[in-house]
Write a structure and sequence with these properties.
With 414 residues, the protein is of the alpha/beta class. It folds into 3 domains: 116 residues, Nucleotidyltransferase, domain 5, CATH 3.30.420.40; 137 residues; 135 residues, no CATH class. It has 19 helices and 7 strands. The protein has a 5-stranded mixed β-sheet. 33% of the residues are buried.
């Protein structure tokens, strides 16, 4: 299909500037539209006036890949190119050295990017609505987990200032201060003085409210003993003030924990309904939440990556080579999908105990001199290539076929 008209949109919060150019670079039309349904209709009408149709859609370049405007543009088969703002700034210098900048000028630059270099840019993937919904939920759940951990760190830092007994009481437990029991007890006793006055009945009541069902009496006795221990104390007025601060943080932490749990349930429900879920879950180290995060970042558009190397580069697991003259350096990528590489490290770490072949591969890399992170990244690089192959061919993971470099590998890991 020969494209003769190209569209560029400079995105803003309240309005958007649109420019259309032909194949020679001549400006065909420019307009400013509002960020609402009327503005979107005006944009679609403007594209239709210049030949946009379902069979021959006009490609659009914009500096974002999300939002209602992008959703309106992605109706039908129209290719939408999300151009990195840094890349757009470099193209701007091709047309002017005065460093002048304007919103209509940026829209024109984006249109010309497609006119001259559309082959060098990739359109937004044609993922299904189901995969895009999973991406929304998985990213939100990951953000909620990160937010929860930030609040836990704030609570821990505050407790170190005036309430060390609480740290001794809960940090040694699984999930530490994020435990429902810890939050319930600290909400009932936000200061050491109040904790020392808690009776066994009150402690048992707090543990029951947190959902504990077994060993309640023994845990209440343990907490009472800790809270009656000999610890340094702040002056009473300062201790009370810090208690108010802790109560506020505990309220935020409660909300963050509830949000993370509810989003995790929504992720599981949606992810298990996706056709790719069975293949993804067949890989060692990938559970529902981690598998959903991987699917969220790679999508289900089979044409998005031409080969496994493209996916590895996108994930940041494949090394990058910088060569000039006699100098040659091979190192890790800095431009990558940060969410996917974060999930990849967790995946590789979990696979060490779930897959004998993965463990043997990791040990071999460590024996060759790799640091822990290097060996993990190398393992992730191999496994995401295998995931690409399985998704393309519709096969489940097979341990024997996945690690066939040496039959001794599995024996070493056993």
């Amino acid at each position: 299909m020969d494209v003769t008209v190209f569209c560029g949109i400079d995105w803003a919060e309240s309005h958007h500037d649109v420019a259309l150019v032909d194949e020679s670079g001549s400006l065909l039309a420019k307009r400013r539209i509002s960020d609402d349904a009327a503005g979107y209709r005006l944009l679609l009408d403007l594209l239709a006036e210049h030949g946009d149709s379902p069979d021959e859609p006009i490609p659009v370049a914009i500096e974002t890949g999300r939002g209602l405007l992008v959703a309106a543009l992605r109706t039908g088969k129209r290719p939408v190119y999300a151009v990195n703002p840094l890349a757009a700034a470099r193209y701007r210098d091709r047309h002017s050295v005065s460093r002048k900048k304007s919103d209509p000028g940026d829209a024109l630059v984006l249109a010309n990017i497609l006119r001259t270099d559309m082959h060098a840019h990739r359109p937004l993937p044609a993922d299904s609505d189901q995969a895009r919904a999973i991406a929304v939920l998985a990213r939100a759940q990951q953000d909620a987990v990160w937010n929860r951990q930030q609040l836990v760190n704030q609570v821990r830092s505050l407790l170190r200032e005036y309430y060390p007994a609480a740290l001794d009481a809960f940090l040694g437990k699984q999930y530490g201060l994020a435990r429902a029991e810890a939050r319930a007890v600290l909400a009932a006793a936000p200061t050491p003085a109040k904790a020392a006055r808690l009776s066994l009945a009150q402690l048992r009541s707090a543990l029951k409210r947190a959902g504990r069902q077994r060993g309640i009496d023994a845990e209440a006795e343990r907490l009472r003993e800790v809270f009656h221990g000999d610890y340094a104390r702040q002056p009473a007025a300062i201790e009370d003030a810090m208690g108010y601060q802790l109560a506020a943080l505990i309220g935020q932490l409660d909300a963050a924990c509830v949000a993370a749990n509810e989003l995790a349930e929504a992720v599981e429900t949606h992810f298990r309904q996706h056709p790719d879920a069975e293949i993804i879950l067949s890989f060692p180290g990938l559970g529902v939440q981690l598998g959903a995060r991987v699917l969220a970042e790679i999508g289900d558009d089979r044409t998005r990556f031409t080969d496994a190397r493209g996916l590895k580069a996108y994930a940041g697991s494949a090394p990058i080579t910088r060569a000039s003259g006699k100098k040659r350096y091979v190192g890790r990528r800095f431009i990558k999908n940060n969410r996917l590489i974060t999930a990849g490290f967790l995946w590789a770490f979990a696979a060490l105990t779930a897959s004998p072949g993965a463990n043997a591969h990791y040990r071999r890399r460590r024996d060759q001199g790799d640091w822990h992170a290097q060996a993990q990244r190398h393992l992730f690089n191999r496994m995401i290539g295998q995931l690409y192959h399985c998704l393309q061919t519709g096969q489940l993971f097979d341990e024997q076929h996945a690690f066939t470099s040496s039959s001794a590998d599995l024996a070493v890991a056993a």
